[in-house]
Specification:
By secondary structure, the chain is α+β, with helices and mostly antiparallel strands. 39% of the residues lie in helices and 25% in strands. The relative contact order is 0.10.
Length: 563
């Protein structure tokens, strides 16, 4: 059972104090290092090049010195230190963190301790420094203090902590057989309601949210309040969970395809109330759309957000300062959208299911390719009443382009020219920046030429994006999805690392020049940093995220590396 921590000996759970607010269990290092995913990763070309980089060579040199001093490879040392796992605790009373390692054996740990202490003392003496180690004995156990860390061998267990009082409490509980954490109400609840399900190597953490909120009561995360519109839009439902959950489980796990980070807790609809239905939907049943991704996507975010309801409920969600800012924004946006009320007429025209995307840029004419090439991006939304709203939205779009031209002309910016393009029977309304025939562009076209604001209607969906080519690529798609496993999530996100790498590579000269300007690096140094970034990105295949609130409040991040 996951609750029987500190190895197979049930009594070990009594060592930690009842005031523990975070408890974690980590699989033996051998399971992580010997996992097929790790073995496949180190065989990739990107990893091999990174491992030969100057920074990696310097790190490897330091590792070799330590290995020679200890007489043991560092990977084997890590395996021996955690042969039966590692356990971590955060204590509220002492503000201390404790790490307990179940090592190979008591004899092995004693020998390792002697070698490590001897190495540190000899190294300090060789450098002319004083003895870096202090030692003291408590309850029959000798402890060592090195800078801010306290170390002690307890039989086959190695204790590491940053607080002497916490170390004493653990030793007291061990000697006096005090029940400790096993008697804490939150810990018993965690054992009953929040369970780890990982099959491979994992790190699991159980958190006492009630005590954590009490300790951090002034933090906005635990008060369920957002300070601004953007924070509410992104984190609103999460803030409600943080303000109400009693116990939370977080984990890191590895399988044959990737690494998963997850945090979750049982969820209750009343946590969100009417004010946050815009985020989770009625009874927390709001689900993201599962539409096809835009061809050539770099990243896709699909979510449930009733932004119109959020806009109209601003008085309940925000303080006076934020509401005054929103009122000013509403007046400006109403002017931009030709007198249409932004909350009711514009935001209210679309369903809560939204899809945002970034895609690789395409240019119909090579002559219109700007020097710096940005990805295209846009919004896909389902209209509440397509027959009624399409004409209204078209007029609003044209008015907005006119506004951009007036504002741009005052600053000497290029002008946009409206156009209607027919593509496979679909009318696409777009605007293109006009080349100034009397102006030369010695440094290439400016960044504005990345954008061709576009509006299109495909079935009952509205597409509003920065590129006419992206809109064209979506014509012919249906609402049927080719993706699985997203039907019941409130938000999902996917990013293609290879596509991101291609986008960065196409702008490598600009990125390197910016590095030289900001950091004062030579071109060689800036290029080396860029190449390192590309190699790190080359290790990754895909990054994804999902979020749900209906029965379980759960956030999951997943990284799939190249193998």
């Amino acid at each position: 059972a996951y609750g029987g921590y500190l190895g197979t000996r049930r009594r070990r759970r009594t060592w930690l104090p009842e005031t523990t607010v975070i408890f974690g269990r980590i699989s033996p290092v051998s399971q992580w290092l010997d996992h097929p995913l790790r073995e496949n990763l180190v065989q990739t070309e990107s990893f091999k090049k990174l491992w030969r980089s100057p920074e990696a060579l310097q790190l490897r040199s330091g590792m070799t010195v330590a290995e020679l001093a200890l007489g043991l490879k560092l990977d084997q040392l890590a395996k021996d230190l955690t042969e039966q796992g590692a356990y971590v605790a955060v204590d509220a009373q002492t503000n201390g963190v404790a790490l307990l390692l179940r090592t190979q054996s008591q004899e092995w740990l004693g020998d390792y301790f002697d070698k490590a202490i001897d190495f540190l003392r000899r190294d300090a003496k060789a450098k002319g420094n004083p003895d870096p180690i202090q030692s003291a004995e408590y309850r029959g156990i000798r402890g060592y203090k090195i800078q801010n860390g306290i170390f002690a061998a307890i039989g086959p267990w190695m204790l590491i902590t940053n607080q002497g009082d916490l170390a004493k409490t653990i030793l007291d509980h061990r000697a006096d057989k005090v029940q400790g954490l096993s008697q804490a109400r939150w810990y018993r609840q965690a054992r009953e309601s929040v369970e780890s399900k990982a099959d491979g190597p994992s790190a699991d953490f159980w958190i006492d949210m009630v005590e954590l909120r009490e300790r951090l009561s002034n933090n906005d995360l635990f008060r369920g309040q957002a300070k601004d519109f953007g924070a509410e839009l992104i984190l609103g439902g999460v803030l409600s969970v943080m303000a109400n959950a009693e116990v939370m489980h977080a984990s890191i796990s590895v399988d044959s395809q990737g690494i998963t980070l997850e945090a979750g807790t049982p969820s209750k609809p009343q946590w969100y109330g009417e004010s946050r239905q815009h985020y989770v939907g009625p009874d927390a049943t709001g689900h993201a759309p599962n539409w096809p991704k835009v061809p050539g996507s770099i990243a896709t975010l699909a979510t449930y957000r009733d932004i119109a309801q959020m806009w109209l409920r601003a008085g309940d969600l925000f303080d006076q300062n934020v509401n005054e800012q929103l009122e000013q924004a509403d007046n400006t946006l109403t002017t931009i959208f030709a007198g249409k009320d932004f909350g009711t007429d514009i935001l209210g025209a679309i369903e809560p299911q939204l899809q945002l995307f970034a895609a690789e840029s395409k240019f119909a004419q090579e002559a219109l390719r700007p020097t710096i090439q940005l990805p295209s991006f846009g919004l896909v939304a389902k209209l509440r009443d397509p027959a009624k709203l399409q004409r209204e939205l078209k007029r609003t779009f044209q008015s907005f382009i006119g506004f951009l031209n007036v504002a741009g002309a005052q600053e000497g910016q290029p002008q946009l020219e409206l156009d209607t393009v027919q593509h496979e029977g679909v009318s696409i309304y777009t605007a293109q920046y006009i080349l100034d025939e009397d102006r030369k562009y010695p440094d290439g076209l400016p960044i504005q030429f990345n954008f061709s604001p576009t509006l299109a209607f495909i079935e009952d969906r509205m597409v509003l994006c920065s590129s006419v080519e992206s809109a064209k690529s979506m014509v012919g798609q249906t609402l049927l999805s080719g993706s699985e496993g997203k039907q019941n999530v409130q938000t999902w996100f996917e990013a293609d690392a290879s596509a991101i790498a291609r986008a960065l590579q196409s702008n490598s000269n600009s990125i390197i020049a910016q590095n030289m300007l900001e950091k004062g690096n030579t071109r060689l140094e800036a290029k080396r940093e860029f190449d390192t970034m590309m190699l790190i990105l080359g290790l990754v295949k895909q990054l994804s995220m999902s979020m749900e609130f209906e029965q379980q409040a759960r956030v999951q991040l997943r990284l799939e590396p190249h193998q």
